[in-house]
Amino acid sequence: MSQTGSNKDVSEENLPSEQATAHEGAMGVPPRTKSLGEVADDPFADPGLPPHEPRVQDIDKRAAKRSERTVALLFTVSMLATVGFIASYVVLPIDKIVYVWPFGHISALNFALGLTLGLALFCIGAGAVHWARTLMSDEEHAQERHPIEAPPEVKAQVMADFKQGAEESGMGRRKLIRTTLFGALAMVPLSGVILLRDLGPLPEGKLRHTLWSKGKLLVNQNTNEPLRPEDVGVGSLTFAVPEGLEEDDHDFQKEVAKAALMIVRIQPEDIKDKRELDWSHEGIVAYSKICTHVGCPISLYEQQTHHVLCPCHQSTFDLSDGARVIFGPAGHALPQLRIGVNKDGYLEALGDFDEPVGPSFWERG
């Protein structure tokens, strides 16, 4: 028996490849794959496009009309949602809190804005998808690849295909869809325009004026006491605020951000800028504490060089030379406040800063 089996194996090995493959199939053995050197006639044959099957809307005009009304309804809902967005933004107070399951207590304004804007955008997308899937032509056309620079006849064919697609989309004859689509697309951007209100009113002259005015006393920010000239020693750095500005005031942070002042005493002979000398009192000079780069508070003073340093980005100003910039990204010198002494011997402002404090802005002169 073993010899017979051996003879069978040998006979199979001697069969030609095609016969061996057929023999293996007949014996219940999976046919052998082609060797590495053998290539099939067309291993990547294009199966072609399946036959086109018409949709209900292609056959039944009433179904097409229903789809058209559905698309128009979605676009109309988008327009109504945009109106709801604008109405919510105008009507709902910013601090109103409501309970919405399952989110819990949330801002009524944020919830209404997100809901209405999301609905407006969703309905435009859903309407466009439903329009494309039910009313636009869904026939597939295969075309051989062509060079990147198409010949004139291909360009003409593309334009013809585009015109045909525009015709098949029904944009020209389906006026209801066209009108509501344009309405929805035209109204959605209004949501972004309305949001511009959050930028607030124009600053007008608010950036050019602070609480400093003629006769305002310089109050020590640490002791909350008016300053006398003898309170400011040579080499010291003192921070001051205008008289009447209290920490519990509603707009304290906004006002102190513009009016914060630093005061140093420099020997008059060390002051290089003549106007700085005229605006000082016995070598006591007052400059804005707000860096002209991005508005950080300046707090580091070098006594020997009369330089002040911003800790944020290392802008350095020379207080003995008009607080000009000697290093760093700041764009211009610190604004100076003209000071004097009143009849009671207290330091007082003789006006406001000579220019706007803080970083540069477009309208700055």
UniProtKB/TrEMBL annotation:
Q: Where in the cell is it found?
A: Cell membrane
Q: Where is the composition biased (Polar residues)?
A: 1-20
Indicate the segments annotated as coiled coil, or none if absent: none
Residue numbers spanned by region Disordered = 1-56
Q: Which residues form the Rieske domain?
A: 253-348
> Where is this protein primarily located?
membrane
Supply the Gene3D superfamilies for this chain: Rieske [2Fe-2S] iron-sulphur domain
Query: Keywords for this entry?
Result: 2Fe-2S, Cell membrane, Disulfide bond, Electron transport, Iron, Iron-sulfur, Membrane, Metal-binding, Oxidoreductase, Respiratory chain, Transmembrane, Transmembrane helix, Transport
What InterPro entries does the record tag this protein with?
A: QcrA_N, Rieske_2Fe-2S, Rieske_2Fe-2S_sf, Rieske_Fe-S_prot
Q: Which residues cross the membrane?
A: 71-91, 111-132, 176-196
Annotated membrane topology is: Multi-pass membrane protein
- SUPFAM superfamilies cross-referenced by the UniProt entry: ISP domain
Its function? Answer: Iron-sulfur subunit of the cytochrome bc1 complex, an essential component of the respiratory electron transport chain required for ATP synthesis. The bc1 complex catalyzes the oxidation of menaquinol and the reduction of cytochrome c in the respiratory chain. The bc1 complex operates through a Q-cycle mechanism that couples electron transfer to generation of the proton gradient that drives ATP synthesis.
Which protein family is it in?
Belongs to the Rieske iron-sulfur protein family.
Annotated protein name in UniProt: Cytochrome bc1 complex Rieske iron-sulfur subunit
This chain's source organism reads Streptomyces meridianus
